[in-house]
Specification:
Blueprint (H helix, E strand, L loop, with lengths): L3 E5 L5 E7 L10 E9 L5 E6 L9 E2 L1 E4 L6 H13 L8 E8 L3 E9 L14 E7 L1 H9 L9 H7 L10
Parallel strand pairs: 3-8
Antiparallel strand pairs: 1-2, 3-6, 4-5, 4-9, 7-8
Length: about 170
């Protein structure tokens, strides 16, 4: 059964329309995507490595994915993290730190602060093959080397401007 998405307008207004994943969206239709960064108290961010059979194979990224029918942004963020790496988060422990829009998607970028041991992660088969914590400098190097999905470069400006810092969300 295909994943069903809610459809939004260009201005992020929810419509009554639904859409099945895998079919191109109609012009002017948008769906909601969440990107979730997990920040340790040490200031390191969790990155995961994509499965080799996915687009952007073997590249580092943050956890995320499309919101499904009747799901709000926070619920989508929590579900994606639980599905992809087996970690349960509480909406009250995170917040949206950035939003942007691409061709047919509205993105909500979430930041959660949680100290999760790597050995506690449970990778979703065919999605995630590895995970590690990185410093902001290591993140920059991954991006510069082309080892991380390039569209995630916004995280560097969020770090540089203090939007993402070890002391936030406390």
């Amino acid at each position: 059964m295909p994943e069903i998405w809610n459809i939004y307008t260009k201005n992020r207004e929810l419509t009554l329309k639904k859409h099945a994943r895998g079919i191109p969206l109609q012009e002017g239709d948008y769906h909601l995507v969440v990107e979730v960064w997990i920040l340790r108290s040490s200031g390191r961010l969790l990155v995961t490595k994509r499965h080799p059979d996915k687009p952007y194979p073997n590249m580092w990224e943050c956890t995320g994915g499309s919101a499904i029918e009747e799901e709000d942004s926070a619920s989508a963020a929590i579900r994606e993290v639980e599905e992809e790496i087996g970690v349960h988060l509480e909406a009250s422990d995170g917040k949206i730190v950035h939003q942007y829009t691409s061709e047919d998607s509205h993105y909500d970028v979430w930041l959660f602060r949680k100290d999760i041991p790597l050995e506690d992660l449970v990778f979703q088969e065919r999605e995630v093959i590895d995970a590690k914590y990185v410093t902001p400098q290591e993140l920059r190097i991954l991006l510069e080397r082309g080892e991380m999905i390039p569209k995630l470069c916004y995280i560097l400006s969020l770090i540089e401007t203090g939007v993402v810092s070890a002391g936030m969300l406390t």
